[in-house]
Amino acid sequence: MNDWGIQALGYVAACLTTLAFIPQVVYCWRTRDTTSISLGMYTSFCLGVFLWLVYGVLAEQWPVVAANLVTFVLAGSIWWLKLTAKSPRNRP
Amino acid sequence: MNDWGIQALGYVAACLTTLAFIPQVVYCWRTRDTTSISLGMYTSFCLGVFLWLVYGVLAEQWPVVAANLVTFVLAGSIWWLKLTAKSPRNRP
Question: What one-character DSSP code corresponds to residue B86?
């Protein structure tokens, strides 16, 4: 596969893993239900996504940069909802 | 930052975004509670992770390969739990 094909594959993968968070964001914002959501997961995940963003810039891997920029906003909003949930069940 | 530093950053990012799923996996397997988990999110996410895996191999970006291989297993198990959940609330 040539360079253009590999880049295109990267963009498709980026779209899938990034847009994946949309139904989760919609559900959590609509229902304010984050009971089964793990705060530990989203804290670690958002931090890692941020580092991927920096990595992508330094390595000039633009699908990585694009994907993680949008993912950071989406996953970050879920993290925020979980963090500020008015529920005692914040353990996971 | 030199090549070695960039690769190291990639591995740190990979650890964070991959290990992030562990608390979510533990919670879901322990409680079988996937109510707030979006099936749409994990279906799209796992497919995207698989494509990132292929991208990483073709682009020889080994942090990308390592991260997405493990992530696929972890996120895949959450997807499976949600898919097979004996609950009517499978909508998100």
Answer: S
Q: Does the beta carbon of B79 lie under 8 angstroms from any beta carbon of chain A? A: no
Residues of B in contact with A9 (CB under 8 A): 51, 54-55, 58
- State pLDDT tens for residues A35-91: 999 999 999 999 999 999 999 999 998 878 888 999 999 999 999 999 998 766 555
The candidate with the shortest Cα–Cα distance to B89, out of B37, B15, B11, is B37
Query: Which of B17, B24, B45 lies nearest to residue A48, judging by beta carbons?
Result: B17
CB contact under 8 A, B49 and A17: yes
Model confidence, pTM: 0.86
Domain range for A76: 3-90
- Which helix (H) or strand (E) segment holds residue A88: the answer is none
Contact criterion met (CB below 8 Å) for B52 and A63: no
A33, containing H or E segment: none
ipTM entry = 0.84
Looking at per-residue pLDDT, the higher value among B67 and B24 belongs to B24
CATH of the domain at B58: 1.20.1280.290
Minimal CA separation from B4 to chain A, in Å: 11
